[in-house]
Amino acid sequence: MEQPTPLVIDTDPGIDDAVAILLALASPEVDLRLVTTVHGNVDLARTTENALRVLHLAGRSDVPVAAGARGPLVHPMAERAGHVHGAAGLGGVELPPSPAALDPRPAVVALADLLLASEQPVTVVAIGPLTNIALLLAVHPEAADRIGRLVVMGGSAGAGGNVTAAAEFNAWADPEAAQAVFSSPVPTVLVGLDVTLPTVLGEDGVARFAAAGPIGETAGAILRQYMDHARENYGVDGVVVHDALAVTEAVVPGTLTTVPRDVVVDTGLGASRGQTLVDRRAPSGSPTAVHVAERVDSPAAVEFLVSRLVDLAGRG
Ligand code: BDR
Ligand code: CA
């Protein structure tokens, strides 16, 4: 087998973030070298603690965790997403604390150090607001140039929004950062609501990994609150695994069908703040085009996730 691709996850755990981290740990195609945390679903102190605890749950407290931005670049967020993810971010499940200490470096420094030291191209998968990545572009552009692929969960081309009628949560949480990232030449894949919303993990899938061992059982418990939220709010029996789909594309490039598009983020303060305006008139030839995911085989993506989690749970 080829050498695993070095991977960094920039994240705001978050229930689907926790599942996404477990998926990366279950995947031999990638070598998770660093987790950086960002404000988002809950505050930075909680997202950071949750990242440490999720890694510990999987027996991987050796993976360094570095804390990043406490808030968006310009305008404070109006609300977080504790109503979706639970006040502490993991659906009411209290994971045991990790014995590992937080990496003392700010996330952006840890990320720049890793990018500059790596002999192989690094894949960065960003599954929270894009504040850390925008700061990397501003502060360490020479390191950002070394990103092999940036896979972002965020935005929406035609599916509308989830946090507002117009905007997807991660883009809405820091639109100025998202605009900086989507207008940069970093090779970026955008995994938005168009492909994540149809990718629903059902009760049967959860039951399979929950039965496979203690890690799977805990992952199932974390997902329970998210399932209740989806049933009550969207009438869906199952959970949309937004962030895990982005990690799947990072692990197996080409899982999603992408088209190069010019993407602009609405950074105004009106009703469509955070909306991603994806120019779908024709594929873009611009060096800053974003590769927008437009097609997904959702049953295959869900099966990939479930089988990897069954495997991980069996190891624990
Ligand atoms: C995104 O928002 C967050 O609540 C999820 O973790 C995911 O990253 C989906 O819009
Ligand atoms: Ca997230």
Q: Could you characterize what this model shows?
A:
- The chain is of the alpha/beta class and 316 residues long.
- It has one domain (5-315): Alpha-Beta Complex (Inosine-uridine Nucleoside N-ribohydrolase, Chain A), CATH 3.90.245.10.
- 40% of the residues lie in helices and 17% in strands.
- The strands form three sheets. Strands 3-2-1-4-5-6-12-9 form an eight-stranded mixed β-sheet, with helices on both faces.
- α2 links the parallel β2 (30-37) and β3.
- α11 (214-234) runs antiparallel to α13 (298-315).
- It is globular and about 45 Å long.
- It binds beta-D-ribofuranose and calcium ion.
- Residues 12, 14, 17, 40-41, 127-128, 243 line the site of calcium ion (CA).
Properties at a glance:
single chain; 316 residues; alpha/beta; Inosine-uridine Nucleoside N-ribohydrolase, Chain A; eight-stranded mixed beta sheet; two-stranded antiparallel ribbon; 13 helices; 40% helix; globular; binds beta-D-ribofuranose; binds calcium ion
Tally of DSSP β-strands: 12
Silhouette: globular
Mean pLDDT: 95
Distance between the termini: 24 Å
Structure ligands:
beta-D-ribofuranose, calcium ion
Helix content: 40-55%
Beta-strand percent range: 15-25%
CATH superfamily: Ribonucleoside hydrolase-like
- Quickly count the helices: 13
The arrangement of helices and strands along the chain is EHEHEHHEHHEHHEHEHHEHEEEEH
What is the CATH architecture assignment? Alpha-Beta Complex
Give the strand order of the largest sheet, numbering strands 1, 2, ... along the chain. 3-2-1-4-5-6-12-9
